[in-house]
Write a structure and sequence with these properties.
The complex is a heterodimer of chains A (115) and B (114). Chain A is mainly β. Chain A contains no helices and eleven strands. In chain A, the strands form two sheets. In chain A, strands 2, 4, 5, 6, 9, 10 and 11 form a seven-stranded mixed beta sheet that branches. In chain A, a hairpin with a 2-residue loop joins strand 7 and strand 8. Chain A starts with a strand and ends with a strand. Chain B has 114 residues and is mainly β. The N and C termini of chain B lie far apart (37 Å). The chains are: A mainly beta (115), B mainly beta (114). Chains A and B meet through strand 5, strand 9 and strand 10 of A and strand 4 and strand 5 of B.
């Protein structure tokens, strides 16, 4: 149980393109979803926390208008990287949390490459 | 000082060895402690999850939490080449909503050799 699906797994696109990444909890309802960014050989950096039906809470230094987060239902959150540039190239990972004393479960990540 | 300190390694051990991975932390409010395993180009996979102090065992894995020393450990017995990965410790203050956000260690790269 506790499967989190992230799609797509790999994106290569031109500079200026907007890219949408989906994160779905397949067998549980996620009251909270988290979005992380990971650079090579580095740990995960939390970008934002989203609760279903409310605005996301962004970490310091993360541009809200650049990284749009929507958490429309208890099983789906999306991250849109708007007008992506090469410096946005990274590994983006989501996690889902069903609340209470349960741990977070992670998706398999999306490798984004902006040319 | 970082909130969570973890030796980045790499740590290289022969197959069958007992592996000890550790993290120290400074925030005494942390109550939930996790170990995740991450293979290259994959998301973290939950290995162990403990609340407050104590030991927890699951197969070849044992997690220990010592809140008085602000120190957590993961032991891997009879290590296998398939255990080669990066191991991340993570912790949170509560298990609810935005306050459940995780603080990660930097991760320790483990290599189990034949």
């Amino acid at each position: 149980g506790a499967v989190v699906s992230q799609h797509p797994s790999r994106v290569i696109c031109k500079s200026g393109t907007s890219v949408k990444i989906e994160c779905r909890s397949l067998d549980f309802q996620a009251t909270t979803m988290f979005w992380y960014r990971q650079f090579p050989k580095k740990s995960l950096m939390l970008m934002a926390t989203s609760n279903e039906g409310s605005k996301a809470t962004y970490e310091q230094g993360v541009e809200k208008d650049k990284f749009l987060i929507n958490h429309a239902s208890l099983t789906l959150s999306t991250l849109t990287v708007t007008s992506a540039h090469p410096e946005d190239s990274s590994f983006y990972i989501c996690s889902a949390h069903m609340g209470g004393d349960q741990p977070q479960h992670f998706g398999d990540g999306t490798r984004l490459s902006i040319l | 000082q970082k909130e969570v300190e973890q030796d980045p390694g790499p740590l290289s051990v022969p197959e069958g060895a007992i592996v000890s991975l550790n993290c120290t932390y400074s925030n005494s409010a942390f109550q939930y402690f996790m170990w995740y395993r991450q293979y290259s180009r994959k998301g973290p996979e939950l290995l162990m999850y403990t609340y407050s102090s104590g030991n927890k065992e699951d197969g070849r894995f044992t997690a220990q939490v010592d809140k008085s020393s602000k120190y957590i450990s993961l032991f891997i017995r009879d290590s296998q080449p398939s255990d080669s990965a990066t191991y991340l410790c993570a912790m949170s203050v509560t298990g609810t909503g935005t306050a459940s956000k995780l603080t990660f260690g930097t991760g320790t790269r483990l290599q189990v050799t034949l």
